[in-house]
Every structure is written in structure tokens, then in C-alpha cells.
Amino acid sequence: MGLSKLGRYDIVRVLGRGAMGTVYEARDPNLERRVAIKTIAVQGLSQEGVADYEARFRTEALSAARLQHPNIVSVYDSGRDGETAYLVMEYVEGDDLKHHLGRGATYTLDQSLRIMRDLLAALAYAHAQNVVHRDVKPANLLIEASGRVKLTDFGVARIQDAGDATRTRGTMVGTLKYMSPEQVQGEPVDARADLFSAGVVLYELLTARQPFNGDNEFAIIAQIIGAAPPAPSTLQPALPPAIDAVLACVLAKSPQQRYGSARAFHAALVQACDEVDDLS
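Above: the chain's sequence. Below: its structure in C-alpha cell form.
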């Protein structure tokens, strides 16, 4: 028999399953609204493993609680029901960008700019609240039927209240093909790592290929650290040549050589495409 309830929430259906848990559509009977519930099943894990995953859930809840923005998925609640820890989130009607790309979807320059406008608006806001996402990738970009993009999954985010860069020395946190050089090397991480990851997403939108790829993790890491991907216009000649300079800057190996903020990245992108479109 399937799960019918988590805490006070009535389970409607399964939205997706992963190695460590399940995402459900559910109903909040108190507020009479649809929600999405992300779970982690902790049975079978060591005590250390349980503590680590529940800490990530708490981090996501704390991070998202301070982020109220139209391009960020809201987190409403968190809890534990028996052996299952869960997060209750805003229900978004739509699929993630990874799903669309996996089905072979391609995006025009204008469509890519709209996606990036929403993503960079979300990052500009999160960074202003001293939250670094650290796992920007297509799977974490939900696209509503209207086309609006919402950034989700702050499970590996870090809050930088003291103004210190996040330190992940000795471990990689994020998704490899979208990680910055400092992330894959376990070095200090700040908002510019998110901009690098956003640049990887942009490159993929514009060229239909990932800038850093390989047969194994070592090959991918070597590219991220030491190789420059082909200029986008060499793969898609119709692109404005100025796009190449924007991508070269945001994908620079050194954080100091990248744009200093999401707004600066967006402004450069707009200028390169002769667009006028301010972040809100």
C-alpha cells in the first residue's frame, strides 16, 4: 500500500523518485493548498549518514525561509514522520529544465535570455541575503507553463552571515559538470561559484552541449580546472560574437576574473545581445 500521509499532509501522488527519497504532490488540509513534499528515507543509513542528510534538510529549510522571491521555490515547513524526514514546498506546475533538455528541446537566443534573466534574478536576490546555492543546474530550474523559471533545492546551500566564503575543503559539494574550479578542488566558495554554474547552464542552452564533459570524473575535473570550452559562436554561428566574451568571463577559472555579481553578469549578457531588460 502506498504512503497516504506525512505529518498532517495528505499524499496525492508521486512526482519523482531518487536514490535517497521521493517527491510527492500533497495537500495541506489546514490551509487547503497543494504542496510538494521532498522526503529522505533514513532507514538503513548510519547515524552519521542520518545526521548529514537531516542537516541538509535543515539547511534547505533555513536557507529558503529567508528567500521570498518570485523566481525561487518557497519552502513552507519541515519535519520528520517516523523514519522519513521531509520538506514541504511550494507546488510548481511544470517540469525542470533537465527534463526538457533530455527530451531534445532547443532554445532560441531570446528564450535562453529569458531563462537566464529569471535565474540571475533569483541568484541576485539569494546572494543579497548571503545565501550561496552551490548546485545551480538544469535539474534545479523548474519551468512553469507561463515560462517563468523558479530556482529550487537549496539543500547544499550555505548561509554566509559572517561574510566568510563557504569552505568545502577536502570534499566536493554540488553536481560535477556544473561545478566551478574552486568547488571541484575543495577551495573556498562564494557567490561567484554560482555564477560559473549559471554560465555552464547558459552555454548548454545556447549550444545544446555541455562545456565540460568526459568519459570519467577525472577527465571532467581536468577540463573544469584547465581547459577552455569552444567559443559558443564556433558551434552556433548565428550567435552574437559578443556572447563569446561573456561566457569566457563567467567561465574564467579564477573567481576574481568573473563578473562580481549576478546583476553584472546579466547586464553584460543584455549588452552583448543588444537587449534592454532590467532585473526586478
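The first helix runs from residue 47 to 65.
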